[in-house]
Amino acid sequence: NYLTLIDTAGLRNTDDMIEKEGIERSLKEAVLADIILLVIDSSRLLTDQERQVYAEIAQQHPQKIIEIYNKSDLPQVT
């Protein structure tokens, strides 16, 4: 038994070709993954775009998602 962790590109809509390729690779990895650790910065509010992308991933992979909220020791910036 072994464990492979893959840190992928941030997920967002972009027109940058290189960034788009990284995001496409991230979405392909999500399909193959047994578990998806969705790390969310809790020191700030999510943008509308982030909420949309995270909701899409959660809808596509509901049994795989574990949400992790980091930076919880920092005050929330609004």
Q: What does this protein look like?
A:
- This protein has about 80 residues and is an alpha+beta fold.
- The chain has two helices and two strands, in the order H-E-H-E.
- A two-stranded parallel ribbon has the order 1-2.
- The model has no long low-confidence stretch (mean pLDDT about 90).
Unreliable residue stretches: none
User: How many E strands?
Assistant: 2
Give the mean pLDDT. Answer: 88
Secondary-structure content class: alpha+beta
Order of helical and strand elements? HEHE
How many helices does DSSP assign? 2
Q: Strand order within the widest sheet?
A: 1-2
Helix fraction by DSSP (H/I, runs of at least 4): 25-40%
* Overall 3D form: globular
Report Rg: 14 Å
Query: What summary fits the major beta sheet?
Result: 2 strands, parallel
- How far is the N terminus from the C terminus? 43 Å
Give the strand content. Answer: 15-25%
Keyword list:
two-stranded parallel sheet; 15% strand
In brief, what are we looking at here?
The chain is an alpha+beta fold. The chain has helices at 17-32, 48-60, and strands at residues 36-41, 65-70.
Q: What's the helix and strand layout?
A:
Blueprint: H1 17-32, E1 36-41, H2 48-60, E2 65-70
Parallel strand pairs: 1-2
